[in-house]
User: Fold this.
Amino acid sequence: MKVGTAADHGGFDLKQRLIELISALGYDVVDFGAGRMDPADDYPDFVVPLARAVAAHEVDRGIVICGSGVGACVAANKIGGVRAGLITDMYSAHQGVEDDDMNVICMGGRVISFSLAADLVKVFLEARFKGDDRFRRRLAKIEALESRS
Ligand code: RB5
Assistant:
């Protein structure tokens, strides 16, 4: 599985630690930046290219981090085909994939510990969309919205 990562200065340190972890777990990591700590950088510059890569199926899943996770999540969800969730608990980390086909996890580098972030990411990457009719029906309604906007 190919996993994209992106973060601004608020998530840079956490992203670097997570890249080491998910590489060690055997995932193929594609980092969309930031490539260095820059307190003046802007999360859309890294999150939007990652989101486009997820939508184009160039990467299978995305991990995006800013200070709170909010801005990164808002930006990622602007790209059609991206289903991003701001995740802080283990249940949502897998249920968001199983029921809603979440393909991007968003986290706040200033609000989450490394150990919780690592657990959330592991569960997110291992989860699979269940594909039940009701889940597909709901996603079709979201896709219809995307194609109208
Ligand atoms: C950047 O300082 C901060 O505003 C940003 O990382 C994020 O928290 C936005 O949601």
